Amino acid sequence: MPLILGTNSIKDTGYDVANSLRFNDGSSDNLSRTASGGSYRKATLSAWVKKANARLTSGADDTILAFRNGSGTNYFQIKFRTNDELQVIDYVGSTTFSLRTTQVFRDISAWYHIVVGIDTEQGTDTNRVKIYVNGSQVSSFSSASYPSQNLDLQINGNIGGTNNMRVGSRTSDHYFDGYMCEVVWIDGQQLDPTSFGEFDEDSGIWKPKSVSGLTFGTNGFYLDFEDSSALGNDVAGSNNFTVNNLTA
Question: Under CATH, which architecture does the 5-244 domain have?
Answer without folding.
Answer: Sandwich (2.60)
